[in-house]
Amino acid sequence: MTAAAALAPARAEAHGSPTTPISRTTACASGGQETDSAACEAARKANGRSFGTFDNLRIAGVNGKDRQVVPDGKLCSGGLAAFRGLDLPRNDFPATKVTAGRTLTIRYRATIPHAGEFRVFLTKPSYDPSRRLTWADLGSKPLVAVTDPALEDGAYELKAKLPQRAGRHLLYIVWETSSTPDTYYSCSDLSFPAAGTPAAGKPAVVTKAAKRPKTKTTTSAAPAIVKATSKPSAVTTSPAPAPQAIQPVSDNSQVTLGHWIVAGALVVGFGAAAWAGLGGILRRRRENR
Ligand SMILES: [Cu+2]
Question: How far does the centroid of ligand 1 lie from the alpha carbon of residue 114, in Å?
Answer without folding.
Answer: 6
